[in-house]
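Methods — Computational structure assignment.
A single polypeptide chain was analysed. Its primary sequence is given first, followed by the predicted tertiary structure written as structure tokens.
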Amino acid sequence: MQPDCDTGGVTTDAWATLDEMLGLEALADQVPAGVGIGRLSFYGRCSTEDNQDPRTSWAWQLSEAKRFVEPLGGEIVEEFFDIGQSRSLPWERRDEASRLLTALKNPARGWDGLVVGEATRCWYSNQFSLTWPKFHRYGVSIWIPSLGGQFDPESTVHDMAMTITGGLSKSERQHVQRRVRAAMAAQVLIDGKHQGGRAPYGYCVVDAGPHPNPRKAQEGYRVRVLDIDPEAAAVVERIFALYLDGFGHKSIAEILNRDGVPCPSAHMPRQNRHRRGDGWQHATVRAILDNPKYTGYAIYGRWQKVEELLDPEDVAAGHVTRFRRSPQSKVVRSREPAHPAIVSVEDFTRVQLAMRARAGGGRRGWSALERTRVRSKRMYLLRGLLRCSLCGRKMEGAARKHAVFYRCSARTLVPGSEVAASHPPHVYLREDHVCGALNEWIARLFAPEHRDTTIDALAAADDTGERATERVQALRQRVTAAESTMRRLQRALEAGWDPESLREQYNAAAAEKRSAEADLAAVPEQRGVNRDELRGLVDTIGDMTRVINEAEPQDLADLYQALRLSMMYDHAAKVIEATIRPALCVDKSGVRGGT
């Protein structure tokens, strides 16, 4: 061929010259006349195990398919591409694959064959053996690059190759899952790293600086850590305190709804668009009480995805993914605190023990439950405050037309137990008989002749300053521990350790120090209440007898709760032993009197 013009051996068709120099040939020249395989459809799938861009995944799979069939005279006229569909799903449950199977039945579909870009992305386990007969039934061929041509059902080699391909696809998926889970567990165990997702109620996700990996830092990735959400954290603390005071999940939910506290989905609607945000549910309260992240430690692996058969009678229908509790052996906790704590480890442990005691034990455990209901059409002033001295259980309210009673029934005790044998069938106590003597006793505590003694007791019980000091000391200890870790890592760096291996630990310690210093700066200045201030408060109340007599029922109930009143009723002696423990009180002070 002579060049069209003398340009140093380069023809006017520059692409043809470049192809010749690179040893490439035009695809059309490779197809002998009349040997084309015709019009084809294309199927591909974007992987869900990695974060590959769907557009990029579609482009390279389509390119592989074209590179395979175009030299053979194939032309792709229709495309089917699944995005976000796991390979473990059967074709009938994938959006685009299902549409492809439906198109098989249409005689006017416009194509007579199917080509794929990568077989392992399309078929999983035994899926090929379940889908190929449908293509064969409608006379549609399947072209697979890894086979080097069209699938031949009469070829043992082809059949074996596709069986192996399905097994490799399954093995690859399981390998990626195990590798990712192991890496995330190691990050939590060593560094306490937040693994993403929505922050638990009570926390928010904040920026903690550039990503420790230099490449990811250049791409703009940032480290994200958990920090306190003050408004929600106060609610979490209240939920734990209520549960430790004997309230159940439903009771706590009703209290929060009654007080107008926004539920988690209403507090952060952007993170919970799939929820209605219409109030607290007992399941929400239980989830909060059961979340160990509130102790300040990072936890990973409490729940795991489990694949279950969609239809046990039809294995070919595939599996569905469910969340199930993980075995304890798969749950990982960070070695050091990873974020600010909302609840102490001791309180969280007490809650877990109480929840287990409520949940198990058959009728014996059920009869020992503490029940505190909070909402009804009638006001129960002594709800949850009155106990039976025979069995130690809370007495439940029972409204009658003329009065409100509190009762303890023996029928819910363990049959044959010593307590059940000595317990009357029913123990009743009338509310108004109790409240009269109770209000008189409370008013007498603030009477002029007893006022100084009461004020001295309240002043001695005030530990506000001590608790503030303990909070500051705990935060300073966190700062000191973080600084110690940073110094230790600096010494390791000076000793010749690899900086990359120490970077993440140092950044985590620095983030912990900044978090503790921020909490320390946010601690309000608190001081104890002196006797003069208490005396002024008591003087402001005035005549306590008149105040109690004029109080509304709800105000009286709130007063009893604020005093942390508890009473034990002795049925045989017809006597109540009453004890008040104000919120700041350390030692109990009690009074004994008849009703």
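Note: DSSP finds 22 helices and 18 strands in the chain.
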